């Protein structure tokens, strides 16, 4: 086994690190977090440097990379405090490009290249349909004149106020069977009948979270994304890699908090000595270090499996589950090590703590990860 | 325009450790491209992009110049090809020997313009560019903060203490550029992947017409400054009296 990064990966990570350090200082990240604003300077720099095209297929001018490289980028960017949204955007765009119409592809690529964010927000979750996404109640009814009428209520929709479109999952009329009961529609967010309401989040505040109400929203039938009845099936291309990217992002945040905490343990003097000289603090640091090592191992190994065409249906769920828990524990201990200042927004460790909490819920809750992996593990022994 | 841009492979300064006997340990050191040379690479690329031609990279040194990642790193920043003069006799070469080896290589490659950084980020002698120009017997200008092509010559701005000097220089020439002449570009994924496929030409000193028994400064020892306990004297306030007190402390220390 070889854990060394390739020279190309090292050079790429150095470039991205320098891009973030040049363009996105901590003071700016802090301001955007406080005011719930997007990291516009990051998006602009990613567009200008072309890094926004990482993970996008070559035929659209992108630079495809292997999963290991994506994971390393996600880890690095999260450790620098700017999150992994570039990669989740790339995966969503890659998904959409694989099934949407040429006109829709144009819209998606144009928006990515001009704003750095995704043209569509993902309109899946509803109040009664969270983990149980089969309970989606939104309807799309063909009127017979080439138009479709959509009615429904979406919630926890990321960036619904910033994206010009929503990829709206709705029940299919007359589905051929249970597996084909949803379709996806690319609905302009400025359509009459759409209302949004902001929800204030604990963390990840550079992106927004909204409820979206769709009342008699009329779109052309051409707004259908991909095939009628293939809603979720079309989104399966990257979902395991998305889980792994979330795991890598958790790892990155833990590393960011850990690096700060260890440096602080060497600086902060109490009772005449740096607090790092006390064994209670050393134990925290050592246990944090072990968790980070474990996270790295599971994230890198799963990425290696995917790159070598080994099934990651279990390992991606294990990685997401373990890393989101371990990362939160590391961020929590880092906050403890900082004491009073750690519980304020003066230091970024509190932001890592708030942000890392998200990953136990988002991208499929950890309970769903257990559901996915548990059944699959048992099946292997049957 | 045929531009050659020179760079040096230097130690990552944060990884240099001081041994108990004050000698320096390079045991855990990673090697990197000298920071200021990257501005020269950027200046070369901007010139070639503006007027056409070709930029080549050149370095001289011992086996360190073979570092595969650094070769890709320099080529990912734009130069079409890379020339290495690798010779154990160039280990810890002084500025004169470095300039002589660069001159030998530059003459063999052929050039309109040679660009250097303002100094290396390890020793920062700021000598190599000037000596190189002298050895090549072409115009040489340092502290260059702007280069504008103008037909078969260049308009050069030099940042001096309290003025900006504007000069015209005919080609061929050697220029050393300042660190603020430009903002260096960051290699993207495509450039990084392409870098490994660009040609690398490797020579030793014989190949560039330099014999053996080269004059070389011998380094007898390099020691870190002695660590001194800080005095931690605090003088609060900004009155004449307190300023005089501060000056008195400094004067006493300097004796």
Separation of termini of chain B? 55 Å
Helix amount of chain A: 40-55%
DSSP strand tally of chain A: 10
Tell me, briefly, the overall form of chain A: globular
Main beta sheet of chain A? 4 strands, mixed
Outline of chain B: globular
Helix/strand class of chain A: alpha+beta
Distance between the termini of chain A: 30 Å
DSSP helix count of chain A? 11
Q: Provide the β-strand percentage band of chain B.
A: 25-35%
Radius of gyration of chain B: 21 Å
Number of helices of chain B: 6
What is the succession of H and E elements of chain A? HHHHHHEEEEEEEEHEEHHHH
Q: Determine the mean pLDDT of chain A.
A: 95
The stretches of 5 or more residues of chain B where confidence is low (pLDDT under 50) are: none
Helix content of chain B: 25-40%
Instruction: Describe the strand arrangement of the main beta sheet of chain A, using strand numbers.
Output: 1-4-5-8
Give the strand order of the largest sheet of chain B, numbering strands 1, 2, ... along the chain.
11-10-9-12-8-1-6-7-13
Describe this structure in words.
The complex is a heterodimer of chains A (382) and B (255). Chain A is α+β, with helices and mostly antiparallel strands. Chain A is built from eleven helices and ten strands. In chain A, the strands form three sheets. Chain A has a four-stranded mixed beta sheet, with no helix packed on it. A four-stranded antiparallel beta sheet of chain A has the order 2-3-7-6, with no helix packed on it. The relative contact order of chain B is 0.17.
Question: Could you write a compact summary of the structure shown?
Answer:
Chain A contains 11 helices and 10 strands. Chain A is α+β, with helices and mostly antiparallel strands and 382 residues long.
